[in-house]
Specification:
This protein is of the alpha/beta class. The chain is built from eleven helices and 23 strands.
Length: 455
């Protein structure tokens, strides 16, 4: 009875400091490049990977976590119903397993009561729930604990059941996949994922917003781009290929495909994650820290992604004294909530929301700067009408601006600090080329250059 009391009471608990307008249904923008609200307002995806949330946290802990993320400006929480870490055989904090006898056709109401509550708690905070019906090892046990419990028929029935349960929750975004390829040289799992998607759509129709979370170093577009149910792509630049993975290449490749669909990095390098820990971690490689994270977030967005997901290595697994550590976390989850990178991710979201661009076009033509190595790679964009342009400079320094390629006669230059969220004026520009210097330079001294048309 304690479980039912906690859940039913918590559903109606409202925290005024975080209570925002309840989320409406999202959809793909008319140009196919971004996500928008029902009234056409731009939506910026700033996700956080709370993968094990349903499995490893109790109700008060979940509310603490959601309060923290809402206060920082996160707009999406990515969480898995059938969790990766023995999610079918290791019960949640209330001693409940998701299914009776591992049968997807026999869901355990007591387990799903917590999922129900989290859907409501996120909505009450103005946050969307990126809901993964299952982690990928329940479809293909290439690696992971499994067991495999889905074929296409069971997947379709499970998708239909979930969609029916949450059909009135407008803040649900459906994420299939769960860190797995949809196909390899030997096996094609697309019929299973297609079945799950069609089960969801059998209840919700095309109002269901559905995507797919792939394995590291790949994009959903590799196997699923032409699937009618896939509304937007996700890629995972990941943690295993060292620093400065070319996130811009993932974005550019996905943006080149037809039909046009939005894309985003749903799992870049996590803050405080060991660098390339597979097959064995070289401790001299160290950890990804906030600057590593910040570079990847900004460069994928500035290259044309519709948003991006931040992650922390202790938070996704909700590392604590209760569970075994996975891949050398250097702190517990509560001590990880306020790491610098999480604040910086929120600053990025606020920056993009301030610009409020309905059309954002990747464009580096107005910046003349040697690209050099991946570590110093610059990315830039402009608005559809050219009235606003912004460039992310990962090492600051001097750049040459070519305002003549933009339509306005004059632009006001500003510098935006991605660490503090502060603006610094930089003067007015006419049509002639001009060299300007960021307020700082060198590794860790990244800046955003912003041009706004005006007098």
């Amino acid at each position: 009875m304690r479980f039912l009391l906690v859940i039913s009471t918590a559903i109606f608990t409202v925290f005024p400091a975080f209570c925002q307008q309840r989320p409406d249904a999202l959809q793909v923008s008319p140009d196919g490049r971004s996500l928008v609200h029902a009234d056409g307002r731009p939506f910026f995806w700033l996700g956080d990977t709370g993968w094990e949330l349903f499995h490893r946290l109790d109700a008060p802990e979940i509310r603490d976590y959601l309060d923290n993320r809402a206060a920082k400006g996160f707009t999406v929480i990515q969480a898995v119903v059938l969790a990766e870490m023995d999610g079918l055989t290791e019960p949640n904090r209330y001693g409940q397993l998701p299914f009776i006898n591992n049968d997807p056709g026999k869901p355990n109401e007591r387990y799903f009561a917590l999922v129900d509550s989290v859907a409501k708690w996120t909505a009450a905070r103005g946050v969307y729930l990126g809901l993964l019906p299952t982690w990928g090892d329940k479809v293909t046990q290439q690696w992971g604990a499994g067991p495999v419990v889905f074929d296409s028929t069971k997947a379709r029935a499970y998708g239909r059941w979930l969609a029916g349960r949450y059909k009135h929750q407008q803040n649900i975004i459906w994420i299939l996949g769960g860190d797995r390829p949809a196909q390899n040289d030997k096996t094609d799992w697309r019929p299973v994922w297609r079945g799950m998607a069609l089960g969801i759509e059998s209840v919700l129709g095309k109002e269901a917003l559905i995507t797919y979370h792939p394995s590291g170093g790949s994009s959903s577009s590799q196997w699923l781009h032409r699937e009618a149910w896939l509304d937007f792509n996700m890629f995972q630049s990941g943690h295993g290929n060292g620093h400065d993975v070319a996130v811009w290449d993932f974005v550019q490749k996905d943006r080149s495909l037809l039909p046009v669909k939005p894309t985003l990095d749903a799992e870049p390098n996590y803050e405080d994650h060991p660098v390339s820990p597979w097959p064995k971690w070289n401790v001299d490689n160290g950890y990804f820290r906030d600057y590593d994270v910040r570079k990847q977030l900004y460069r994928s967005v500035f290259a044309g992604a519709c948003g991006v997901t931040y992650g922390h290595h202790a938070v996704w697994q909700f590392m604590s004294e209760r569970v075994a550590a996975i891949n050398y976390p250097d702190r517990g989850w509560r001590h990880a909530l306020d790491r610098p990178g999480a604040f910086h991710a929120g600053i990025l979201a606020k920056f993009m929301e301030q610009l409020a661009l309905k059309e954002r076009i990747p464009d580096r033509s107005y910046i003349n700067i040697p690209q050099g190595s991946a570590a110093t790679r610059m990315e830039a964009f402009r608005s559809g009408d050219g009235s606003i342009a912004a460039a992310y400079l990962p090492v600051g320094g001097e750049v040459e601006i070519i305002p003549g390629v933009l339509p306005a006669a004059r632009y006001r230059l500003s510098w935006f600090d991605p660490r503090k969220g502060e603006w610094r004026p930089g003067g007015m520009l006419e049509k002639e080329r001009i060299k300007v210097a960021a307020p700082g330079s060198g590794p860790g001294n990244d800046w955003v250059l912003v041009l706004k048309a005006g007098e």
